[in-house]
């Protein structure tokens, strides 16, 4: 019964993201915009671009994740769907987990998959593209889980998007640091690639536990 | 996946700790072996008449006392109409009953539903209808059914009962206010829950739909369900009791209610 409810939740959020007004494709387009704008600002210095390419992709991923996050719980709070979910015979923590999973499937995963393509814009070589894509795949769940806490806290605040960004961005810094350092370690250096990658994976796992519990607590508290 | 259900059971138990930790019925459910069994009781419902008791409820929002000393008992098949002027706190009372607001004092006890918490026993239809505009009426209802469990009717059958069979595949965004309300009401039919909380259910409904709703409520009560409705107009609820919420200061009381004889104790309500 619990699995059925969670499947329904994930399927609904995926359907909503795909429909008109959904945030599915939007964050990907935003990601592309940031990555495309940076070379205009820096000029056509290919060496510079390829050196800072992973950092640009990671920054863009952080910002693109932030975009859809403010509606994660707010939309459900506004139209009463959240009351439906709290009335379901499913713990709120699992509801949060299902919603975060659906959100990651529509933002984090497409970002990670599109990273090699967008890497072309910042002159990344093959190794760097693969490394950045892999680190995004491992690291974006941490971004989504951390963001979910802020999203739950601001669910009942109108126009809470800015507060959300202010709350959440500082907490995303460790993920950003290890994501970029893992991508750069793949290009050579003193640290082996797997060391920062393992820490990045650990960050995602920790954020998964803490973020789920904290977001559910925030939703209960705001009621 | 049995382990997921087991986890769910454990969590719900944690959350369920006190809709009256002193309540015998609930405690009996707590120690009963096997959650599935008690779930079935909830699903069938008729076998175990549900009773809701509210005692001494008081609510304060932003420092302002909305109402106090609300008390009532609803036995299986009974209905309660909550009336009062605009802003008296009808919706607030429903929010307390649905678990969205925590009362300042008082307790809510629900008997004979096994381990289910109060919020797992009720359907809420209010101003915020819980419908997603981009999804079709059928998708909305199917989602509610899968999420809430205990399915009883298909979305198509429920919508046809409310005269909206043609809107099955239409996005809810295309529907009028009255049609939206009817889709929300169809949620009452797609899965069984013993307690219906309706906040002005007839708002935006035409006369024919009001009659359909009255029929739905009568059938629900005949099957042992409870109905609590905040309303300004007669809903066609036969023998419904009335709870009039008076402005703060003066005492807000239910009609004389001799059935509050249980020795259940007051306590904080958390769920």
UniProtKB/TrEMBL annotation, chain A:
Matching PANTHER family: CYTOCHROME C BIOGENESIS B-RELATED (PTHR30070:SF1), HEME EXPORTER PROTEIN B (PTHR30070)
Protein name stated in the entry: Heme exporter protein B
TM segment ranges: 20-43, 55-73, 94-122, 128-149, 161-182, 197-219
Membrane topology field: Multi-pass membrane protein
Keyword Nucleotide-binding: no
Role this protein plays: Required for the export of heme to the periplasm for the biogenesis of c-type cytochromes.
Keyword Cell membrane: yes
Primary site of residence: membrane
InterPro entries for the chain: Cyt_c_biogenesis_CcmB, Cyt_c_CcmB_bac
Subcellular location: Cell inner membrane
GO biological process, one term: cytochrome c biosynthetic process
GO cellular component, one term: plasma membrane
GO molecular function: heme transmembrane transporter activity
Keyword tags: Cell inner membrane, Cell membrane, Cytochrome c-type biogenesis, Membrane, Transmembrane, Transmembrane helix, Transport
Similarity comment: Belongs to the CcmB/CycW/HelB family.
From TrEMBL, chain B:
PROSITE patterns to which the protein is assigned, alphabetical: ABC_TRANSPORTER_1, ABC_TRANSPORTER_2
GO BP annotation list: cytochrome complex assembly
Gene3D superfamilies reported in the protein's UniProt record: P-loop containing nucleotide triphosphate hydrolases (3.40.50.300)
Entries under InterPro entries matching the protein: AAA+_ATPase, ABC_transporter-like_ATP-bd, ABC_transporter-like_CS, ABC_transptr_haem_export_CcmA, P-loop_NTPase
Start and end residues of each ABC transporter domain: 52-265
Keyword Translocase applies: yes
An example molecular function term from Gene Ontology annotations: ATP hydrolysis activity
SUPFAM superfamilies per record: P-loop containing nucleoside triphosphate hydrolases (SSF52540)
Keyword terms, alphabetized: ATP-binding, Cytochrome c-type biogenesis, Membrane, Nucleotide-binding, Translocase, Transport
Domain of life: Bacteria
Family: Belongs to the ABC transporter superfamily.
Name of the protein in its database record: Heme exporter protein A
Organism: Methylobacterium gossipiicola
């Amino acid at each position: 019964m619990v699995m059925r409810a969670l499947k329904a939740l994930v399927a609904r959020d995926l359907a909503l993201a795909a429909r008109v007004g959904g945030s599915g494709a939007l964050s990907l387009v935003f990601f592309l915009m940031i990555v495309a704008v940076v070379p205009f600002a820096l000029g056509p210095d290919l060496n510079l671009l390829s050196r800072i390419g992973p950092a640009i992709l990671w920054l863009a991923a952080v910002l693109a994740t932030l975009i859809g996050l403010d509606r994660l719980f707010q939309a459900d709070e506004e139209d009463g769907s959240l009351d439906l979910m709290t009335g379901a015979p499913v713990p709120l923590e699992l509801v949060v987990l299902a919603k975060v999973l659906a959100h990651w499937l529509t933002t984090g995963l497409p970002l990670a998959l599109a990273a090699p393509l967008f890497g072309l814009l910042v002159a990344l070589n093959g190794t760097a593209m693969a490394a950045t894509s892999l680190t995004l795949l491992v690291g974006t769940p941490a971004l989504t889980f951390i963001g979910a806490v802020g999203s739950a806290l601001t669910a009942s605040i109108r126009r809470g998007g800015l507060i959300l960004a202010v709350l959440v961005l500082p907490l995303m810094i460790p993920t950003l640091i290890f994501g970029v350092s893992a991508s750069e370690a793949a290009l050579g250096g003193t640290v082996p690639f797997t060391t920062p990658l393992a820490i990045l994976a650990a960050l995602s796992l920790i954020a998964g536990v803490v973020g789920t519990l904290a977001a559910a607590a925030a939703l209960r508290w705001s009621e | 996946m049995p382990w997921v259900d087991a986890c769910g059971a454990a969590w719900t138990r944690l959350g369920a700790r006190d809709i009256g930790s002193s309540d015998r019925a609930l405690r009996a459910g707590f120690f009963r072996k096997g959650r599935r069994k008690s779930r079935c009781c909830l699903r069938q419902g008729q076998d175990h008449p549900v009773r809701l008791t509210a005692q001494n409820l008081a609510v304060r929002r932003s420092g302002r006392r909305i109402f106090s000393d609300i008390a009532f008992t609803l036995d299986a098949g009974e209905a309660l109409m909550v009336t009062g002027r605009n802003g008296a706190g009808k919706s607030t009372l429903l929010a307390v009953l649905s678990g969205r607001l925590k009362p300042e004092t008082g307790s809510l006890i629900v008997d004979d539903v096994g381990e289910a918490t109060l919020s797992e026993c009720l359907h809420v239809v209010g101003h915020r209808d819980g419908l997603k505009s981009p999804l079709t009426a059928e998708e909305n209802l199917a989602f509610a059914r899968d999420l809430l469990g205990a399915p009883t009717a298909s979305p198509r059958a429920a919508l046809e009962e409310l005269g909206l069979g043609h809107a099955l595949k239409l996005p809810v965004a295309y529907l009028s206010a009255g049609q939206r309300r009817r889709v929300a009401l169809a949620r009452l039919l797609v899965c069984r829950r013993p307690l219906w909380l309706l906040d002005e259910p007839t708002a935006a409904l035409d006369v024919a739909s009001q009659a359909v709703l009255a029929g739905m409520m009568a059938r629900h009560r005949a099957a042992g369900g409870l109905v609590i409705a905040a309303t300004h107009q007669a809903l066609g609820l036969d023998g419904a009791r009335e709870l009039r919420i008076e402005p703060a200061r003066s005492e807000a009381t239910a009609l004389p209610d001799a059935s509050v004889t249980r020795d259940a104790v007051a306590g904080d309500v958390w769920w």
